[in-house]
Amino acid sequence: MGAFRRNRWFVLAGGITLAFAVVSLTVPRGPVLTAISDVGYLLLMVAVGVAMLATAWPARGTNRRFWALMGTGCVLWAAHQAGWVYCEVVRQTTVPDPWLMDVFLFLHLIPMIAAVGLRPHEAEGGQKFRVGTLDFLLLLIWWVFLYAFIVFPSQYISLNVAQYDRNYNSLYLVESAVLVLVLGIAARRSPAGWRVVYLNLMAANAIYAVDSGGVNLAVTNGGYYTGSLYDVPLMGAVSWMAATALTARELQPEAASPNADDKWGAMALRLAMLAILSLPVLGLWTFLWDDSPALTRTFRLFTLLAAMVVLGMFVFLRQYLQDQTLIRLLEDSRRSFENEERLQSHLVQREKLASLGHLVAGAAHEIDHPLTAIMEYSEKLWSNQRLTNEQDALVRKIVHHSQRTRDLISSLLSFAQQSSGERTMVDLCMLLQRSVQMRELQRHDQKIHVETSLAPNLPKIWGDGHQLFQAFVQIVENALDALEEAGGGLLRVSAQVQGEEVVVQFSDSGPGIKEPHRVFDPFYTTKPIGKGTGLGLSAVYGVVQEHQGQITCQNNPEGGALFVLRLPVANPQALAAGQS
Distance (Å, rounded) from C-alpha 172 to C-alpha 205? Predict the structure, then answer.
């Protein structure tokens, strides 16, 4: 895009300003010049409002609210100018002083200040909209209060035209300066696209503020008339704003992540607190030093009381929302930290099991060969009829411990060779019921009870049914061993669907686990020597990981251990991936 095309709206704004300057110099003072000036000024303001609202329409989020508020300010501005057109062009009378429409002129800057306070140049946060809305309402109430406190008494309570003009013009000049200031602050830390928007709006509003102050002085001195050269900068400022809005629609400036050292939010809250604290000072001034009529002082004191209540409520509500946001951020941070810890634990466990699996496989194979020879020669020796009783007992011990060693090697090989078998659609309800029934048949302790709570129509998962069955059997067996050592108790097995996962829980009322974070470590066991190898739950962990699931262990608050397995529900994509 060439330089002229990129800046064509600004060129057009300059052309409009130049054309009006020529009209102001060539057309004599009178109804024609007044009509050209008032109607042209109104059309420009309407064009600014339409341009800003048109820019807001395709935008989203804070960007849309920014241009909508700017457009709203221009609509109020145009309403005030429409009153001038009605008085000076239609009725051809002088604009009244004081005038009800002056309120529209005063209020039109408030949405613009609030728009900048939304910080559309920053990426939008969760609470930004609600806090931005409160900031706007607080700002609106504050400026309305100032208008009611400073201007309204001399307009309606005790009419004083000179004091009204002085108070109104001073307050309006301060309001315009605040808008220029906040635009400059926003431009300092904004990305390139938004900096162009802010700086252009700041320059246009600065010209407007300075020239409106000059117009007010000229009106006081009697040197102003509609269409004079005083109106040329006003035309230029309005045209500049319209060009900025149209250019922004084409540029589509993007928001950036907020700076870590951005103090805008804190500054807004401090300004709000400063506004609250200034109210007692204004009340003290009204009570002690205000020489206005008694009715005016009474009105100002009641206005102060109402403002203190309303503004205080908004400040505390804003702080409450900020606190809630902070609490949510802390909760999110805590959950993220826990998830990272859990993920790190899973990764370490997987690496540990993988490394240990390779080591165990090699060691088991090396041990198996001499062990086979020991068992073979021991059995031959045992079959010898010429052994003494003492020798026979020793051979029996050799065979027994060799068999135990063979079982250990078998467990090691089973642990090391956790390669997944054939994958099919697995019915978890059937596997859980079979694993519980099998262990119940092997145990006849009447003090141990098993309850199952399986959700109906439990969805199937894609996996190895044999591996999952062995994993369930291992967990049930561990729980029943714990209950047997405790002298009885209850084992609850439940399964239900949560989102896209099947959640299986094994909860017992036994003594619990001393170190739940270590139960999946290889060779960790609390059983007596000779009763457990410490590899069963490690194998279960590997099986669950192979099925893209998660397994956790913890102690119940009321006692006993709780194992929670989360397995993904089978879906067409997973099924297709598994079959490919």
Answer: 13
